[in-house]
Each structure stands twice: as structure tokens, then as C-alpha cells.
Design brief:
Layout (H helix, E strand, L loop, with lengths): L1 E3 L2 E3 L2 H15 L10 E4 L5 E4 L7 E4 L2 H22 L20
């Protein structure tokens, strides 16, 4: 038996569902929009970077997998920003991308 506030649960699976529901009701997640730079390296691996967040990048073999990993890494980076820097960076507006050539 598990005590859940003033309620006691006997079935563990049912309690888990109740706990998740209660947690979701209490936590309202804020929606953020950050520009993301996606590149593909010489091996075909996709690399996603979020310049607005410190050290926020990940990689994957497919774009759908990259999108999932970006969700995870942005959530982690936002936690770090809040906990250690007590700030959320500005959500910059995306203007565009250009491929430029440089000689050195």
C-alpha cells in the first residue's frame, strides 16, 4: 500500500498514473522559442546547436532523432541556466542564414 496525500493506493501501476497526473497538474511548463542551427558533417551526422544557450548542442543520424535530442538538451540547458546563472537568455528572433566564403 502506498500513501498518496490523504489517499492510500494498493495497485502500484494505478498510483504511478495518479502521481504523474498530479505532477502534471501542478507544473505548467513555459514554452520557449530559440533559433537552432542544424548542420550536417562529412559523415552525414546532423548537428544541432542552440546559440542562445550555453554549450547547448547535440547530434544524431536522422533529423527526427535530432529533434528529439534537441528537446532533451534544451530542457537540460534551461535547468542549468535557471539554477546556476539565475537567468533565461533572450529568445532572439531568427532572421536568416547565409553561406559565406572566406579566404585565409
Amino acid at each position: 500500500m502506498i500513501l498518496l496525500g490523504r489517499t492510500a493506493c494498493i495497485d502500484n501501476k494505478f498510483c504511478f498514473v495518479i502521481l504523474l497526473y498530479m505532477k502534471q497538474k501542478k507544473i505548467k511548463k513555459k514554452v520557449y522559442q530559440f533559433p537552432v542551427i542544424i548542420e550536417q558533417d562529412e559523415n552525414g551526422v546532423f548537428i544541432g546547436r542552440v546559440p542562445s544557450l550555453r554549450s547547448c548542442y547535440t547530434y544524431a543520424r536522422t533529423l527526427p532523432e535530432l529533434y528529439d535530442r534537441l528537446q532533451e538538451v534544451v530542457a537540460l540547458c534551461l535547468e542549468v541556466e535557471k539554477e546556476y546563472f539565475h537567468d533565461i537568455p533572450e529568445q532572439n528572433k531568427f532572421l536568416g542564414v547565409q553561406q559565406l566564403e572566406f579566404s585565409a
